[in-house]
TrEMBL record:
Listed name of the protein: GAF domain-containing protein
InterPro entries attached to this UniProt entry: GAF, GAF-like_dom_sf
Organism domain of life: Bacteria
Chain ranges of the GAF domain: 122-216
Amino acid sequence: MGRPVDLARPPGVDPAALSRYLNRAHDDFVATGSTDPAVRRLVQESWRRSVEGGLDPEQVMATIRLDDAELAAIRDQHPLAAGMPVIRRLLVDGASDAGLLVAVSDAAGQLLWVEGDAGLRSMAEQMHFVAGADWSEASAGTNAPGTALALGQPVQIFGAEHLARQVTPWSCSAAPIHDPDTGAVLGVLDLTGGDEVVTPQSLALVKATVAAVEAELRIERLSPAPRTSVASRGWQAPALEVLGGHGATLRHGSTTTRLSLRHSEILLLLSESTDGMTTAELAVALSDDEQAQVTVRAELSRLRAVLGPIELASRPYRLKNAVDTDVAAVRDDLERGRLRRAVARYRGAVLPASSAPAVALLRDELHMHVRSRLLASDDADALLTFADTAHGRDDLEVWERVLSILPLTSPRHAQVLAHVAALDDELG
């Protein structure tokens, strides 16, 4: 179970009276730096973080960091693009009718989509609540998307709980969206408007939409796209998934087959081979002990029985059909510069339970390929997404790279700095 949400406007509380109280508390904080203890703790702490980061409550304006071309490129690569149809169907359509806005940010707090009521969007533009703007706490002060990102939990901000004076007429409810495989934060879903968006029901709707988006991302990854290079009309190439699982999953048509570890290793190696492999080559690739070739031939015979439409030729052993793999998809994303998509696909190591020498080599090569592209990039969103995963959490060099490109005012700077220090201590 997740932590209970600290509601901005608990049921039964008069919104007008609460608004008057919060405006007085906000004025006192701006004038004296002191906070009324009745102000919610998460708001007090966010105000202090924002001011200590150098933001002026009277002057702060979210920074617009992305031009149209940069925004289009990030949208095209971002894994949350696959969830936008769900968000539009479940939230945006209703929000437009209700006179509300829906925003989706990346993991660094940059708004990638802002949709909903046209008149409200025009008003929101005056405070830079637009796609391409940075609404992290470091840029915009206390706000639901930025504070949800800073805390890693659903957040409601009511009126004058916002730090920036010009944002105090607005209210918002937001919740982080997580990668369904790695658990890393991909971004934040936000509902913005008037008092009505900080009810328990509004936040429940945002959280339900987030759950639907995460489910959609999982379904999308389980349904590989058809290859365009195959000649047969309507044909979808079989797909082999080996990242992060103890054994591979083979999908062909509507059939899904879970392979044993040995069959997973063999099929992966054959899919990677351009010229095929002899029995002797497979024996060496699968074991340091160079297991008997008769054992390899027996495994290949059993493998044929579960391959469905995939034809396994011999002398040398090779696949007659094209087979899509998640390993090849990650490589393709990296080569095409789609770093965020590659990180999203990279759910874990190649067959982590395998000790086969050739699989271990492939595992290391892919990990280093992803890692080297990340270390050479300035994409804080992709780096943070990777760093937050099990395969990035203990990588000191990756965390140091994140630290080197995050501004001191970033809401995650202190956490990243502490994590770097802890890893440095562990490694001596």
